[in-house]
């Protein structure tokens, strides 16, 4: 504590630097900025950066001016090339000049312009936000007032967007997303480094880490300047780092360039190649189809008809590529940070527990290269077109393309690290059955799963459900038990004849349905009972709403039952997979038909190689996976 | 059919008179579909009576089959309030069992269509955060629908969990 502590720290008192920093302090955000961010989050109403109206309404103004220029385009040319006079006889301005309404027209334009400017200014003045201990609020609108509250505990993600125009001015906007399609609070625009600090502060408060909640800063003392503007009044005042400031606050990285724990960054060449490969089968198919059509009809002009389609396709593929350039994933204390973009930069922080499902896929053409794609389910619809690149689908991607190591790094962020080796070895490419912890389709399901019979299967433990599907297009769905909304099993008449059934896990998000068909109906029945028990236990022990309140580092994002002997699902609960009501269903089913394999009839802990590996503690879990790991090596 | 997928529980069944709601709405739907197809084909095929007859007759047969199966559908609709979740079953041919933990129930709606009103029945609709849950329980008497709604909301309140 050699450096002086600022008078109003979070607790209004000096804090000893007892907490070692999880990462290096962020060099991009100055102490002054942090102070400003604190001032902004004092529970008072604040305004945005004064340039906000220009950026928010600026495009309208530009369009307006552009229309005027377009109208008078020929006239402007005429100023420079007088010989060209005569070409602009019938443009709107000439018509105005001749009709005698010129003065009125100019007056109208000026009035409209003034109204615009006044409107922008007033709306700027009326647009205020405040950040209190448990809510972010935004008030806006001139005639129709809108007041939006975002409870911190329900924040799904915070997205920092820097559209290219705003980047020129060094500004950024924060979108605080709630669990609904239209549930975001948009703080636009703020100074970029201030936005970064503010994001850290909001996330810190949402995490519920040990600190005094509520109005952190004594009002009246602070916020002498903060009541007028939401931006730093003293830029350049880089005072260095003061020991009294909490490390969590300094930790969140400032920018793409300064990410401390960057785990995955996208290689442009790989991105382009993967995109091309993904597109290749379709391109080949289309080319053949077109050739066939042309040869069959002998009409070469038909080719012209495909030109617009081709252009649209190329533009779409290109747009997708541009949006994913400089894609990177980093780990922060407040969750995963996904950043992307070249000109307009977007960086989204997803706190733990806001990832509702994970899907790892490998298209056929990626196979020789060992590439994978990771996407996730989220509660909000990703923001489309708000920052120029309208790639809504990008918002659900954790990894556009990557090798096994990348997938592993991502998985380590979102599921318990000790589960990762299992998923990597058995789920991604494996096709082993019960000996690897997967319950798979019975042989009679061959008609429904021609190629993937052995691979089509599911693993369940007290944290995750892992669905493994597809041999040609490999897919792995990972559903955290704590995020499952409901479970269903179903059986149509054809499945009924084959005694097969389908199990579905309903989760939040676009990828909401995690479904696995062609399973033995007895197994499905057991899965159903087990899943309901597991989900209940995981819900009880889920702490992700305030992910930092237990004082631990914010990992994993799924935040299943804590890997300790004291987790909520007691082993005795798990011993009977059957639902509590009614007679033991497993027994009944086993009696009616021969079980596909011993697992359906045995209690879960009788067989160490059971597909549901209930582990009473983290240590044992690690051992189990360790054993399996050696098993893999033997097996291959 | 006892070898199909089955879950043993103390299932509560819906009101048997829900069958009439099913039958009436199936027949109305079939008649409307027949009329639409008939009129379209009447103009489209320039009075090709064979085509019209085949199509409308086909729809008639399908409607009839559907009407017969509504007996089973009504009989197989069931629900049970378990300790920690609400489980529902439906379907004879297309069986489906859904379990929703009480803590996951976001909204419980009561709905009543015109035909249901004639029979004094109401429908409970359960909304979770997942769009795909799709749990709808029709054929409850008005009093039971309301009491069940209240019970479920109370259970959901005490076990409220995050998403």
Automatic annotation (TrEMBL), chain A:
Compositional bias per record (Low complexity), positions renumbered to this chain: 598-608
Keywords: Membrane, Transmembrane, Transmembrane helix
Coiled-coil boundaries: none
Pfam families: bPH_2 (PF03703)
Domain YdbS-like PH: 124-201, 457-523
Residue stretches spanning the membrane: 54-72, 101-122, 276-296, 302-322
Classification via InterPro entries: YdbS-like_PH
Bias (Polar residues): 216-230, 610-636
Annotated segments matching region Disordered: 1-40, 208-230, 542-636
Record protein name field: Membrane-flanked domain
Gene source species: Agrococcus casei LMG 22410
UniProtKB/TrEMBL annotation, chain B:
Species this chain originates from: Agrococcus casei LMG 22410
Transmembrane stretches, start-end: 20-43, 49-72
Keyword Transmembrane: yes
Residue span(s) of domain YdbS-like PH: 75-152
Annotated keywords: Membrane, Transmembrane, Transmembrane helix
PANTHER family in UniProt: UPF0699 TRANSMEMBRANE PROTEIN YDBS, UPF0699 TRANSMEMBRANE PROTEIN YDBT
Name under which the protein is recorded: Transmembrane protein, distant homology with ydbS
Keyword ATP-binding annotated: no
């Amino acid at each position: 504590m050699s450096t002086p502590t600022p008078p109003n720290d979070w607790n209004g008192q000096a804090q000893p630097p007892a907490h070692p920093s999880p990462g290096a302090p962020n060099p991009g955000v100055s102490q002054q900025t942090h102070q400003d961010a604190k001032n902004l989050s004092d529970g008072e109403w604040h305004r945005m950066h004064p340039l906000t109206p220009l950026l928010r309404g600026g495009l309208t103004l530009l369009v307006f001016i552009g229309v005027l220029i377009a109208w008078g385009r020929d006239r402007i040319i005429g100023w420079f090339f007088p010989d060209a006079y005569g070409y602009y006889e019938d443009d709107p301005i000439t018509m105005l000049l001749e009709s005698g309404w010129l003065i009125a027209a100019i007056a109208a334009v000026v009035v409209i312009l003034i109204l615009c400017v006044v409107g922008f200014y007033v709306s700027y003045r009326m647009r205020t936000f405040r950040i209190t201990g448990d809510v972010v609020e935004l008030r806006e609108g001139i005639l129709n007032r809108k007041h939006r509250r975002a409870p911190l505990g329900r924040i799904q993600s915070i997205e920092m967007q820097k559209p290219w125009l705003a980047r020129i001015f060094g500004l950024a906007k924060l979108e605080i997303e709630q669990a609904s399609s239209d549930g975001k609070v948009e703080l636009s625009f703020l100074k970029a480094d201030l936005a970064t600090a503010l994001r850290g502060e909001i996330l810190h408060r949402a995490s519920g880490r040990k600190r005094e909640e509520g109005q952190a800063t004594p009002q009246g003392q602070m916020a002498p300047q903060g009541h007028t503007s939401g931006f730093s009044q003293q830029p350049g005042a880089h005072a260095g780092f003061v020991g009294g400031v909490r490390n969590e606050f300094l930790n969140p990285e400032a920018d793409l360039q300064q990410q401390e724990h960057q785990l995955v960054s996208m290689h442009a060449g790989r991105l382009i190649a993967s995109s091309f490969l993904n597109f290749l089968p379709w391109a080949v198919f289309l080319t053949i189809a077109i050739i066939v059509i042309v040869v069959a009809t002998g009409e070469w002009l038909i080719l012209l008809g495909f030109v617009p389609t081709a252009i649209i396709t190329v533009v779409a593929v290109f747009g997708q590529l541009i949006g994913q350039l400089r894609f990177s994933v980093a780990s922060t204390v407040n969750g995963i940070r996904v950043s992307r973009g070249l000109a307009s930069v977007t960086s989204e922080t997803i706190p733990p527990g806001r990832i509702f499902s994970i899907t790892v896929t490998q298209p056929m053409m990626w196979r020789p290269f060992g590439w994978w794609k990771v996407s996730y389910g989220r509660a909000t619809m990703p923001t489309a077109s708000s920052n120029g690149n309208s790639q809504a689908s990008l918002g659900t991607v954790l990894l556009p393309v990557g090798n096994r190591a990348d997938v592993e790094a991502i998985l380590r962020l979102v599921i318990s690290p000790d589960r990762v080796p299992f998923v990597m070895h058995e789920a991604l490419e494996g096709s082993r059955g019960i000996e690897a912890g997967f319950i798979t389709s019975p042989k009679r399901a061959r008609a429904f799963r021609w190629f993937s019979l052995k691979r089509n299967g599911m693993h369940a433990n007290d944290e995750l459900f892992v669905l493994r599907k597809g041999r040609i297009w490999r897919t792995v769905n990972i559903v955290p038990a704590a995020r499952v909304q409901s479970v269903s099993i179903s059986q149509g008449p054809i499945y009924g004849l084959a005694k097969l059934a389908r199990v579905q896990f309903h989760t939040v998000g676009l990828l909401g349905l995690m479904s696995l068909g062609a399973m033995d109906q007895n197994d499905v029945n057991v899965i159903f009972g087990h899943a309901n028990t597991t989900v209940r236990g995981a819900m009880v022990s889920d702490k992700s709403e305030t992910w930092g309140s237990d004082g631990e580092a914010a990992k994993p994002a799924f935040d299943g039952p804590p890997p300790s002997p004291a987790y909520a699902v007691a082993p005795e609960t798990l011993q009977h997979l059957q639902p509590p009501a009614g007679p033991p269903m497993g027994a009944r089913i086993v009696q009616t038909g021969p079980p596909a394999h011993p697992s359906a009839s045995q209690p879960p802990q009788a067989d160490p190689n059971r597909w549901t590996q209930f582990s009473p503690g983290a240590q044992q879990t690690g051992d189990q996976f360790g054993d399996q790991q050696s098993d893999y090596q033997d097996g291959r | 059919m006892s070898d199909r997928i089955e879950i043993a529980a103390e299932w509560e069944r819906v009101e048997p008179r829900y069958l009439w709601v099913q039958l009436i709405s199936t027949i109305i739907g079939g008649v409307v579909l027949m009329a639409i197809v008939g009129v379209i084909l009447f103009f489209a095929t320039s009075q090709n009576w064979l085509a019209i007859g085949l199509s409308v007759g086909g729809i008639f047969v399908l409607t009839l089959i559907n009407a017969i199966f509504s007996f089973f559908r009504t009989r197989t609709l069931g629900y049970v309030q378990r300790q920690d979740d609400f489980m529902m079953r439906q379907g004879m041919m297309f069986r489906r069992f859904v379990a929703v933990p009480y803590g996951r129930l976001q909204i419980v709606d009561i709905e009543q269509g015109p035909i249901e009103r004639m029979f004094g029945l109401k429908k409970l609709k359960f909304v979770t955060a997942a769009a795909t849950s799709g749990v709808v329980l029709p054929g409850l008497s008005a009093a039971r629908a309301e009491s069940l709604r209240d019970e479920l909301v109370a259970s959901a309140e005490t076990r409220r969990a995050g998403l």
